[in-house]
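B., you asked whether I could sanity-check this one before it goes into the benchmark set. Here's the sequence:
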Amino acid sequence: MNKEDSLHKVIPIEKADDAQSSVFLYASMPKIYPRTVHGLFARWRWIGVFITQLVFYGLPWLEWGQRQAVLFDLGARRFYIFGLVLYPQDFIYLTGLLVISALSLFLFTAVAGRLWCGYACPQTVYSELFMWIERKVEGDRSARIRLDNGELSLEKLVKKTYKHILWLGLAIWTGFTFVGYFTPIHELGMEFFQTRMGSWEVFWVFFYGFATYGNAGFMREQVCKYMCPYARFQSAMFDKDTLIVTYDEQRGEPRGARSRHVALADSGLGACVDCDLCVHVCPTGIDIRKGLQYECIGCAACVDVCDGVMDKMGYDKGLIRYATQNAMQNGWSTAVMWKRIFRPRVLIYTGVLWTLILLLGFSLFLRMPMKVDVIRDRGMPRITQQGEIENVYRLQIMNATEVKQGLHIQVRGLDGMAVFASDEMQVDAAQSRWLPVRIGVPYDNLQPGSYPIWFDVSNDDGSLHVTEKAVFLVPR
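And here's what the prediction gave me:
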């Protein structure tokens, strides 16, 4: 692609000598064709792909008792996570989980840069899957370049059509699985085959599928470079003791091509043979030899391919490797480098992170799987025919266990109270219900005003017990 093809916005500018020059304001991005790479870090990337997608695609199909193991039922406002049933009142646990995730990201970034981006980010994972399909259908880098630059032919039409059919199939399946976390996936599957899916379910299946298809199939590195905010603020979490993918400039320069039969000492050159393979395998198309760049996602594909070249040349590996800037500049050993990596900043992150994890786990362990909300009726208290002042309350009782619970309600706080409640005092498993409760107190026992009372709600065997405070009003 020449310069004229890649630049498509030209504005003429008059100079003082009446000559004209052209200033190019907008440039189309050339397509990146990452080359296949094999090695240690490539295997780790595929392990990350396998684990994350096994969890994502497999988790909705797991059963727990008589229901889906992980289900976020927005309509019923209940969230099922294996044996745990959460209600909107348990939003604090989601907040804690988000804080833990953010601190984990800060910790991993401070230690080893963009590990999340390179190995577990959904954008990276689905881009790997889509590029794997592309390589299987169209071939490796050179074959794909020839196919794209060639004239339209039957082979090109068939390969492109087949590739996009596979991409769309994977994208729609991804959208279907995503919706399966919010609608029971077995029911969703039956509705899909019977064409009875709800409008919102159809919308989100195709919306999430379209987003996957567009981001992983077309936008790829542009999402990482221009749309992801993490790429922009990562520098605030980096320092010179952060482990990053680094080119050893002292060892590699001056670079240049040479025969593998010429000894490195006799070549008059550095270890870099200037093959540009590190650029060809990079999913964001950068040259790591130019130093740390925000576009680098830390996938270490350049490390794998460079180590392969060093093996063929008979040189030591590690021309491109994970290292810190201080280690490179000062020539530190691996032991010294790792000692500096675990610096006070990292230890503080680690301590705070583990403290939050333990607190969240301890809170979940002590969590009472029954919740009670007491709401006093808005109406004014009334005086009954028996000469009692009566207040009416509504109790919302939420059962977060997997078994039906029989209930016992007691009220304390005032002398002579009479409690009138429904005869049916049960709540089904993982359900909630409203129970009306009337409380009467002899009129002569109290002066006008408000009095605190307490509702004690327990189950049949007494293993669950909740106390909630309320107010009893006596009118003037």
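One thing to flag: The two ends are 89 Å apart (CA to CA). Otherwise nothing jumped out at me.
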